[in-house]
Design goal:
The chain is α+β, with helices and mostly antiparallel strands. It has 3 helices and 12 strands. A hairpin with a 6-residue loop joins strand 10 and strand 11.
Length: 196
Amino acid sequence: MTVILTLCFAAMVQAQDKKLRTFQSPTPTERATSRVLFVDTEKRAIIGEVAVHFGQPVWKKEYEALGAFDTMTKGKVWRFGKDFWTTFDTNLPIKIAGKEIAPGAWYLGLHRSDDGSVWSLAFIDPAKARAARLDAFEAGKAPVEFKVPVTTMEKSMESKDKLLILLSSKAENPTEMTLKIQWGTLQLSAPIQVML
């Protein structure tokens, strides 16, 4: 009886091994960060920061083929970034395109309307994504807490080979910032107001 149980257990382990696959990076992946740090120069104290962390996928020429990029994005919450989630982190209260966002960390996706004319940042609660064991590749399955519209900028003749997400503040009023997203010929932006 012990021999039969041992053989059955060994067969179950082999069957499980065939169902389980892993995907690994042979070396650490490249991540980029864009951030704005706010400093009170009179008190010489850091007030807070706003940052976005993201992987930089390479734009492929086949995305420019008729309908390819639309098929990837129209009517979907699309993972933008590479490997791990694109993460938006702020320890200051802010408004993006008028939407109030409390301090905290969020996973980001991009949502595109069914007709392709409207893009929005899709804010995803990391705790819910972790509880569902969702990878950024499955951003379309993640529950979106809220969306914030982004503006489509005029298409540039210059194509960005790697995804670029840039946070910048205005010199004349540092609490007014801009979020810019550029990838291939896609260019999006949104105003950010820091609530100091």
